[in-house]
Every structure is written in structure tokens, then in C-alpha cells.
Amino acid sequence: MSRITRYLSLAVIYTLLPACATVRGTGDLGVVIERATGSIQIVDTTQHQLLKQVKGLGDLSHATVVYSRDERYAYVFGRDGGLTKIDILAGRIDKRIIQSGNSIGGAISQDGKLVAVSNYKPGGVKVFDSKTLELVADIPAGVGEQRSKVVGLVDAPGQRFVFSLYDTGEIWIADMSNKKPEITRYKDIGRLPYDGLITPDGRYYIAGLFGEDGLALLDLWHPEKGVKRILSNYGRGSKKMPVYKMPHLEGWAMTDDYAFLPAVGRNEVLVVNRRNWEHVTSIPVHGQPVFVMARPDGRQVWVNFAFPRNDTVQVIDTEPLKIIETLKPGKAVLHMEFTPRGEQVWVSARDAGKVTVYDTATLKVIATLPMEKPSGIFFTSRAHRIGL
Amino acid sequence: MVRRWQSIISQLFLITGMAVLYNPVYAKDNQIDASNNQPTSLSEQRRAELKDLLLQDCGSCHGMTLKGGLGPALTPDVLHNKSRQMITVTITEGRPGTPMPPWKTILSEQEIHWLVETLYSGVTP
Q1: Rounded CA separation B98/A243 (Å)
Q2: Does A56 touch chain B (CB under 8 A)?
Q3: By Cβ atoms counted within 10 A, which residue in A10, A151, A284, B1 is the most buried?
Q4: Contact check, Cβ <8 Å, B57/A307
Q5: Contact A36 B102 (CB under 8 A)
Q6: Cβ <8 Å between B99 and A35
Q7: Is the whole-model pTM more than 0.90?
Q8: For chain A, what is the domain count?
Q9: Confidence of residue A291 (pLDDT cuts 50, 70, 90)
């Protein structure tokens, strides 16, 4: 480019700029799901402000969000099979499709070019072009005629997606490096896998099992070694309590030494050694854990609980492995999200109709934001984390 | 008092049972009547709470519109040919070996009955 054209194009840019209302980045933005009204709130985590409500997203119970790698677009996966791409800078829907009858979550590929959705009905995974939302691949899941609901879908290094089959007890890897998905199947991984996570380094995929004790572990550096069972001796013989809300597994509940996992049907957080995947200890907590999430620096783990004990959040100090605080953010706490470096955590309370922002050093409230039945909270920093 | 009404209602169900079997349209009217005229001692506030529980907490597994999630759909069109007794037992006792939990420690018999009637007649958010 000659010097003159460079100056010319700069001149064009500077004359255009004032036309845009504000020029800003998106690194301190996020999205909060308002599940009952089918809307989302775009939030600013620096100013603690609601920037814009975007409506018309369908059934958002259990909705999740992933971000484009430029952190400008939020992909919202609705329960009713809706996939909506939202421009969070402009505060409007960019594209929206209904891709199935009933879906549960999604993931974005390593290169950011593909968005995958896991579906309950009909069971399987569909992969879309992240720019246009055009269908790239359809992967029906199941054994023979029997279709299975798909859970625990995550992205993995090497342009792969990994997910679990609830009804048939399998883990599948879909390698999307080439045009056609290349599938690796692992059968008999255990009964009723209900969710999955991938470690922050992208190496281990873990599926939680509802139908039996323990979890299924797959080493993605050595997929040829197959799936192995971990924690299978944990809790054997002792009676589980009924579960009124399924726990979730999130890849970020890891510190250097430990992984923290919700126990199924027990009022405990499991602490697991990350080197050998053995059970270290269990921390007794207020109720059955739903989300167990580590602050980005790993010093704290925050836990919320299943119905009917869901008005409470507990904070665990990961050095002594003890609870240091019990907080009451309001009725029906559904989700928590840390700011990128963890100085704040945002906590949604559905029935209380608000999101409470805590300072994680003092554990004091620094802001409350009223919203319509808020549930999931998703900040843009997820764009650059494997598995989120 | 409540007992007596309940037995009268259940007898009415028995009597109309044949019609219910053979005439789905009639069955539907009958259900709506049953849920509306029920001699319930559930306060309006409690019923609102139960509806909320149905949509939100049952909804966390069955979908907020009850069209299905991890658990199957609980809409009138899928329930109409399933027995009320089986549905009531499922809610009361849960289904061991599946995530469906028992609700008897949380809800009274009467509250579960109200939930079942509400499911069969359809519930909108």
C-alpha cells in the first residue's frame, strides 16, 4: 500500500468514527439470560450497568451462551432448539434459526468458525457456520435405531467436539478438521451420563454419571487408551438422596492441584487430585451442589445448590479446603460468573428477580441489578477459554 | 369434610370413567370441571406457588414449557392416554434409577393431586 492510500484510508476511518455512537471494546461485557421472558440483558461489568435488553429469543430455560473469538457475537442456545446470534455491540439479533425441537447447549470450535449444538430431540449434534448459521454437519446420535439425547458438549483442541449420549451411555469425539465429521465412539462408559466437562488445558474430558457411581474420564492426548472410570469407589453403599435439580459440570472448577466436582445426590463437594484423579476429600456443604466454580486464580470455589435449598451460596477456601462464608443472595440462585480476573462474581437469583455482584476479596455486595427471572450469566472472557 | 368430598369426587370419576375411556372430548370437559370444582383447601397463594414450582422446578428437567428436556414432555397431548394413577405415583414416589425424584417429602397428597389435574388440563406460563 502506498503512503498516500494509507493516509487516505486513515482519513476515511476518522471521518466515519464520529458517526458511530460510541466506540468501545467488549472485554468487560456479558449476557444475562432472562429465562421466563425469552430475553437477555447485555451487561457491563465495569460500570455494573444493564446496557440493553434483547427480546424474542424463545424458551430460554436452561439456555447457554458461547462467544465468537472477536467477543462481539453471543450465540444463545435456547431450550426450544433456537440458536440466536446476537451482536452485543449493536445490541440486536444478527441471525436466528430454529435448528431442532429441543436442545440443551452448544460449543464453538477452536478456530471460531463452527458452532455446534447438542440436541435432545431429535438426539444428536448439529454443526453450523458461525458466520451465517448455515448447517455444516448433522450428526445423529445413538445406537442403531435408538436415538439418544446429547449432553456435555464441549470444544477440544484439534478442531474437535466431544459429547456424551445420555440414553445409550457413550462418549463421542467429532473431529471437524475436514469437511466431513470424523467420529470416534466410546461405548459402555457408564449409565446415564448427565453432563460433561473438559479441563482448562483441553486434555481431559470427564462425564458425570447419574445411573451409577463415579465419572468417566477420557484422555484426549491418548484417545487410543479409551475411557476409564474414576471415583468409582466413592460413596459406594451409602444411600443417595433424591436429586431435585441436575448438577452441572464446568471446566473451570479446577485449581493447580485439585478438581472440584458436585456430588450427585449428596450434600458434598468432591475434591479430586488432578494428577491421578483420585478422591482427596469431600467437603460437606449446605445442600446438593449444582454449580461448583473456581475463581480464576483458584483460591476460592463458589457453590450454589439444588431446590429446595437454593437460596444460598457458599465460598470454599481451596487451601484449607474449608467453607469460609455462607451467603444468601435470594430465592432460587441459579448461576454464578466471575469477571475475567476474578475480583467480582455475579450471582443470579431467579425468584428474587435480581443479580447480585460480590467483591470476592471482602465477600460484600457491591451492586444489585434487577432483572426478569435471571438465570445463566456469561461474560465475554469465555471466548478465549477451551471448553466454555 | 374434605375426606367426604374426595370420596364423592372419586366416585364421580368411577362413574364417568367409562365415558372418559370412550369419549375423549367429554373426558376433557370432565377434567376441567374436576380441577375447578375441586373442594380444595389450597389457598390461591399456594396454588400460585405450585404453578411456579411446576414451570420452574419441574421445568428444570421437563422444560419450562413442559415440552420435554431430560425428562419427557408433560403436556396434555402426551398425558391424555396415560393413567392418572401412574402419573400420580410417578410424581409421589419418583422413578428409582432415573433422575425423576420423589416429591412426597416436599408436597402433600393434595398438592400432588392438584399438580396432576393441572398437567392434564394444560398449564401456560
Answers
A1: 10
A2: no
A3: A151
A4: yes
A5: no
A6: no
A7: no
A8: 1
A9: very high
User: Would the CB atoms of A61 and B64 count as touching at under 8 Å?
Assistant: yes
Q: Do B69 and A62 touch (CB under 8 A)?
A: yes
CA nearest to B65 within chain A: A59
Range of the domain at B58: 2-121
Beta bridge partners of A114: A129
At CB < 8 A and 24+ separation, what contacts does A164-169 make? A164/A189, A164/A193, A164/A195, A164/A196, A164/A207, A164/A216, A165/A123, A165/A141, A165/A193, A166/A192, A166/A193, A166/A194, A166/B70, A167/A123, A167/A142, A167/A192, A168/A141, A168/A142, A168/A143, A169/A193, A169/A211
Q: What does the alpha-carbon distance between residue A54 and residue A90 come to, in Å, rounded to a whole number?
A: 10
- Is B90 in the A-facing interface, judged by CB distances under 8 Å? no
A-chain CB neighbours of B61 within 8 Å are 245-246
Mean pLDDT, chain A, integer: 91
- Alpha helix segments (H runs only) across chain A: 3-16
Asked whether residue A125 is assigned to any structural domain, the reply reads: yes
- Tell me whether residues A246 and B56 touch, CB distance under 8 A: no
In a domain, A18, yes or no: no
**With a cut of 0.90, is the ipTM above it?**
no
In A, minimum Cα distance to B93 occurs at A242
Chain A residues within an 8 Å CB radius of B52: 351
A4 within a domain of the structure (yes/no): no
For the domain that residue A196 is a member of, what is the CATH number?
Answer: 2.130.10.10
Lowest mean pLDDT across A189-203, A232-246, A253-267: A232-246
Q: Is the pLDDT of residue A237 over 70?
A: no
